[in-house]
Amino acid sequence: MLQLLAPDGTYGVPKGYEKYGKLIEDLDEDTLKTFYRDMARIRRFDIEAIALQRQGQLGLWVPAIGQEGAQIGSGYAVGKNDHMFPSYREHGVALTHGVELMSILKMMRGVNHGGWNPEETRFHLYAIVLATQVLHAVGYAMGVKLDGKVGTGNPEEDLAVISYMGDGATAEGDVSESLLFAAVNESPIVFFIQNNQWAISAHIDSQTKAPLYTRGEGFGVPGMRIDGNDVLACYAATKLHMDQARAGQGPFLLEALTYRIGAHTTSDDPSKYREDAEVEKWKAKDPIVRFETFLRRQGVGDDFFDEVTEAGDQLAKDIREQTFALQNPPMENIFNHVYSDQHPEIDKQRAWLEAYEAQMGDHE
Amino acid sequence: MSNYKEMPIAKALNAGLSQAMSANDKVLMFGEDVAELGGVFRVTEGLLDEFGDKRIFNTPIAESGIVGTAIGLAMRGYRPVVEIQFDGFVFPAFNQITTQLARLTYRSEGFLEMPVVIRIPYGGGIGAVEHHSESPEAYFAHTPGLRIVTPSNPNDAYWMMQQAIECPDPVIMLEPKRRYWQKGPVNLDTPPLPLHSARLMREGTQVTLIAYGPMVTAALQAAEIGAEEGVSIEVIDIRSLSPIDYPTIMASVKKTSRAVIVHEAPTNVSISSEIAARISNEAFYNLEAPVIRVGGFDTPYPPAKLEEIYLPDADRILEAIDRSLAY
Fold first, then answer.
1. Facing residues of B262 across strands?
2. Nearest residue to A99 (alpha-carbon basis) of A143, A63, A45
3. pLDDT at A362 over 80
4. Can you tell me the distance from the alpha carbon of B251 to that of B273, in angstroms, rounded to the nearest whole number?
5. A111, A256, A265, A272: which has the fewest Cβ within 10 Å?
6. Is the peptide bond preceding residue B8 cis, with omega within 30 degrees of 0?
7. At B28, is the secondary structure helix, strand, or coil?
């Protein structure tokens, strides 16, 4: 397993992994601070979103607490032309590519099903049916290769695709088919599995008999395991393998070993299926705490951490206000975009509902 | 003078595909055995030589993978046409078709278009083993976001293939496999109708006979026999199963006051269920008889040696027409 930052915050490059370490040595202090700032920011956002759900402001929340290292580290390693296909817990990755965090809250509130532009942000829409997005990612990567945007050596031209999934999704047939299609087409893609140990209530031991990083081997997709709570390892591994995919070296699989500190969703009750001791053990490996220790040893002082805490409080306040101010979508959104073109049945039903509502008057 | 050419449905589909691939280099064709072999029904024969292996290629035998990657390619700006080898093999892709392909334009509030065509040879009558004779149209017609069409003759096959590929929405193209080698004239210059319009195939006065896909041939046979027996049957080929061209159906039913609907699929919760309900809504006072449906029985598709009994034919259709006229 690639680990550059131990849980106690000690940095070190294991023997044989020098090419990964080199990528970290290229980073300046501002970039490292950005990693910390965004990990802290997304955790604060997450905590606030849970509170908003508990207050009835969101229909559901899907916490990613504990997985910030995997998400911020890999997200910042994704290049400026690359495309990302998330599952539904990748709030941190969204943050690294400029997706408005309010878009995610709107979706979880039920204002829309995911109202950001996937082509503009290159961060595709959340996929709620497990593993469906992995095949879309492979198809996209097949298209990139058909376009000749792989291995040209021109960084303005080349791009690769990263597909996120959880350990639970790996059981779906679509993941196996994705690995196969990517392998036979030599597609420019990295499969990024966040193994957070629990598929709702099913522990990883009941989901696979072989480590997930080996899942691609039978299909011809090599893989490696990384410490998913080490933001630097996640950055370096994603960067190196996305660079290789972009250069035309084909698909690769990364298993980021992490832990879901919170519930699967706000509808879940983890106390029914796991021990507190296990959670406490993983809290000791927290990605944010270890990175703070590392930064302090690098000479980053209280001023910075105080500023991040203040910014987090401001973010929480802002999203509360913006969530409370959200308007319900207009009635016609029921019918809009079912088809791109005019559709006689949809048009008829829209007209009927408008007439019906007008006749019934205001039922507020 | 239009330029006509005589060809079977399979060749017309091939010619339509070739036209679409020539017209737009974003059109791709892929599926199981579609490249060198030309598909098990040879619908894609010759396209590999014409367009090369970047435009038409074989995939692993994984239908969810075929449709799922087609979605990704559409996101990248391609217009994929995929072949599902047989009707009974589409179900591994059902999840990708219904939860993803059909909804991505809606989910993205119009940011994404999904110009994907899924070609499926469907229906029975070829003496096949299990899972090679299914009529799965109702599953897809029930799904908002999909368009479903089925040509019954070479001219429609040629043009509907091109129209489906031009459509910005996902289209399921159900190809009547037992009619693949049925010949007819193709007008190479002018499309006959918009993709979702029904066609009046034969005028008549006493009863409207509504059919689609492989049953259009049987309906026309029934109308011919009926005419010899003095019964005037109007035949409509609805061509599009989602959306259905109801104005054409209602105009005919209001004229004849009687409707019989025929298809191969089991009748329970089928295309004919929906058309019958709509006729009762929109032409209730014009009806002289209840709408009668002629379809497959509500059983799995039977073994091949029983399919001639199972499948509707001209006699079963005429028996239903007699019942309608008896009211």
1. B294
2. A45
3. no
4. 19
5. A272
6. no
7. strand
Q: Decide: pTM greater than 0.95.
A: yes
Place of tokens 């929480």: A316
A68/A43 Cα distance (integer angstroms)? 7
Nearest residue of B to residue A127, measured between CA atoms: B100
Q: Flag whether residue A173 sits within 8 Å of chain B, measured between CB atoms.
A: yes
pLDDT band with cut points at 50, 70 and 90 for residue A93 = very high
For a pLDDT cut of 90, what percent of chain B falls above it? Answer: 99
Report d(CA B236, CA B293) in Å as an integer: 14
Partner residue facing B109 (CB), from A177, A181, A337: A337
**Superfamily covering domain A18-329:** Thiamin diphosphate (ThDP)-binding fold, Pyr/PP domains (3.40.50.970)
Phi, psi (degrees; rounded to nearest 5) at B202: -155, 130
**Which position has the token pair 């009619």?**
B179
State the greatest distance between any 2 C-alpha atoms of chain B, in Å, as a whole number.
60
Contacts of B77 in chain A (CB under 8 A): 143
CA–CA distances in Å: residue B298 to residues B94, B96, B293: 21, 27, 13
Domain ranges in chain A are 18-329, 330-364
The string of pLDDT tens digits covering residues B164-195 is 999 999 999 999 999 999 999 999 999 899 99
Q: Choose the catalytic residue: A113, A273, A339, A343.
A: A273
Distance from CA of A168 to the nearest CA of B (A): 17
Query: Is this complex's ipTM strictly greater than 0.90?
Result: yes
Nearest-angstrom CA–CA distance, A112 and A110: 5
DSSP A196: -
Radius of gyration of chain B (CA): 19
Strand partners, A203: A198
In chain A, whose CA is at the least distance from the CA of B167? A341
Give the span between the Cα atoms of B292 and B314, in whole angstroms: 15
Measured CA to CA, the distance from residue A329 to residue A3 in angstroms comes to 46
Residue A24 confidence (pLDDT)? 98
What pLDDT was estimated at residue A342?
81
B50 contacts B193 by C-beta, under 8 angstroms: no
Smallest CA-to-CA distance from A144 within A252, A254, A251 is with A251
